[in-house]
Predict the structure.
Amino acid sequence: MRKILFFACGVMMALCLFGCSVWGGEDDMELTPEELESVNHTMPNVSSGSGVSAIQTLQIYTIDSGEEQLVPLKVPLDVNRVTPEFIMDKVLENMDEKIVVTEINVEKSRIYVSFSDESAPLRKCSKTFETLILDCISNSLLDNLSYVDEIVFRAEKGAYQSQNYSFEPDEVYSTK
């Protein structure tokens, strides 16, 4: 009886391994050499479940308001390229607070993020929560964009100035 059970388990394992290799297929989201030369984006690692086909994910950060801390979060990657706008959209979708980003610019290895003067993090935020918002955005961008080394935050009308922080127009908030 044991020999039959071991044989059956062996056959099932072989079928599972064979099935995964046959139906796994090629990754259709890889960039061509021309695209890699024109844009230095790096694709995030592929996350896979046990025995299930791989789903590409992107790790961003969100805020656990109760614990007042940053929490890493994996979100599905449903585009061919990872852009600052895509990352920002995913971060803002997963925030409880309404945050309005008015502009995102990349210059050399620095990214400029401008916020609406009428919404968080510039208005109605405690210092702790404002810091969490800024850290959440900067960590998400720095971790996923290989060509960005510095984050600068601004208000839509110039330098970043809230009740808690005052930054110069080109003052770097965070670096790699």
